[in-house]
Amino acid sequence: MKKQMIHTGFLLVVLFNIFISLTQCSDSFLHTSIHRQREHKTVLLTGAAGFIGSNFLQYMFDKYPNYTFDVLDLLTYAGSLENIPDYIRKSNRFNFFYGSVTNPDIVDLVMSRADYVVHFAAESHVCRSIFDDLAFFDTDVMGTRVMMRSLVKHASTIQRYIHISTSEVCGTAETQPMDEEHPINPRSPYAAAKAGADRLVYSYWCTYDIPALIIRPFNNYGPQQHLEKMLPRFITAAMKGEPLTVHGTGEQSRDWLHTLDLARALDKALHLEDFSKIKNQILHIGSGIATSVVTIAKKILEHFDLPEDYLQFTPDRPGQVACHISSTEKARKLLDWQTEISLEEGIKDVITWYENNRARWQRMEGMKHIPVQTSHGTITLQ
Ligand code: NAD
């Protein structure tokens, strides 16, 4: 009897141990798989051969060694694989898909692989939209529609989708600073196309349960920006000892945001633990400081030790925006984000990039001037 009890006791201990190790094993399996889920993500970036997207790609690639990055880009005049450093292009964590966001089959393919999506792809230059706006509506509006249709299809696997809009959708500041409730009054065909896309995304989250949010960055500057944009034009003109051409009086002011500061905000939006706080929200991303165009031009002249008579004033751009200044409240509250790079520091950083990459921007020289017909005749925008 005693022997039988010892035997049963022994059996119970063995069974107990097997039970414990099984739970530990499934626990650790569960833990590993959750960990892996947390660690490995496929991030789809559209338009990341362009200025902002390529800066964001580099920031994220370096920060998240377990993430894979898929880039969908049509490589228009504004996109270049040169914007993506060699070590990224050669990595097995990087896949490039050549194609348009207006192509539903290609978009479906890349969206089916993604955990996170940031939709940057767009025609982005205001002056060019005054010259010919067709591609703007095709890419910015119809492309966003294709992305939205696909997001509805893949909403169970895509965890977060960020639509990159722009402060330009608001037009000139009616209230200062401009918060997320500011009226939408686009003043150029570019801004109108972006406003269409912005409202399209909004309508999709009202209609379908999609894990999307809208980010409206203010004026970005940073390395690798196309020469057609203001800051690269000013910097490279000063480097060559040529006049800096300023539209109108130059008193129009903008809220200048370094691409690295934007990258940090987007990173926070992708990783905020409680997604419900920002799901289906609009966030303005800017510094909260407005600086006029002519002030920037003077800062650059000062850096290159050039006198103010290097400023050359041209007719103003039609549909000009007088003032842009971002409210920083919502982004600070929801993302715990604010800018870290001052305009002075940022401009120096960008000047260094243009000094070190002459061959890259010299190839774009021919694209700086855009002649357009206006009611006052032909003017050249740049
Ligand atoms: P960019 O013009 O430098 O780059 C755009 C990229 O999109 C290019 O690589 C281009 O090849 C690609 N592209 C264009 N059409 C495409 C298509 N049909 N399919 C796939 N790819 C296509 O633009 P950016 O300055 O980097 O701006 C990126 C985004 O940020 C845009 O949505 C823009 O509206 C927005 N934004 C820009 C600023 C700014 O100051 N630059 C400010 C606010 C918002």
Describe the structure.
The protein has helices at residues 2-39, 51-63, 86-89, 104-112, 126-131, 134-153, 189-207, 230-240, 259-271, 293-303, 329-335, 343-356, 358-362; strands at residues 42-46, 68-73, 94-98, 116-119, 160-164, 212-217, 219-221, 244-247, 253-258, 282-285, 290-292, 311-314, 370-374, 377-381. The termini are far apart. It has one domain (40-381): Rossmann fold (3-Layer(aba) Sandwich). With 382 residues, it is of the alpha/beta class. Helix 2 packs across helix 9 and helix 6 (134-153) packs parallel to helix 7 (189-207). The strands form four sheets. It has a seven-stranded parallel beta sheet, with helices on both faces. Strand 1, helix 2 (51-63) and strand 2 (68-73) form a beta-alpha-beta unit. The radius of gyration is 25 Å and the shape is globular. Residues 46-47, 49-53, 72-76, 78-79, 100-102, 120-124, 139, 143, 164, 166, 194, 217, 219-220, 226 line the site of nicotinamide-adenine-dinucleotide. Nicotinamide-adenine-dinucleotide is lined by residues 46-47, 49-53, 72-76, 78-79, 100-102, 120-124, 139, 143, 164, 166, 194, 217, 219-220, 226.
How widely separated are the two ends? Answer: 100 Å
What CATH calls the topology is: Rossmann fold
How is the biggest beta sheet arranged? 7 strands, parallel
Bound molecules: nicotinamide-adenine-dinucleotide
How would you name the CATH homologous superfamily?
NAD(P)-binding Rossmann-like Domain
Question: How many structural domains?
Answer: 1
Q: In CATH, what is the class?
A: Alpha Beta
Order of helices and strands: HEHEHEHEHHEHEEHEEHEEHEHHHEE
Which structural category fits the helices and strands? alpha/beta
Backbone CA Rg? 25 Å
CATH architecture: 3-Layer(aba) Sandwich
Count of strand segments: 14
Work out the helix count: 13
Low-pLDDT runs: 10-37
| Percentage of β-strand residues | 15-25%
Question: Mean pLDDT, rounded to whole units?
Answer: 91
Q: Give the overall shape, derived from the CA principal axes.
A: globular
Task: Name the helicity range.
Answer: 40-55%
* Adjacency order of strands in the biggest sheet: 3-2-1-4-5-6-10
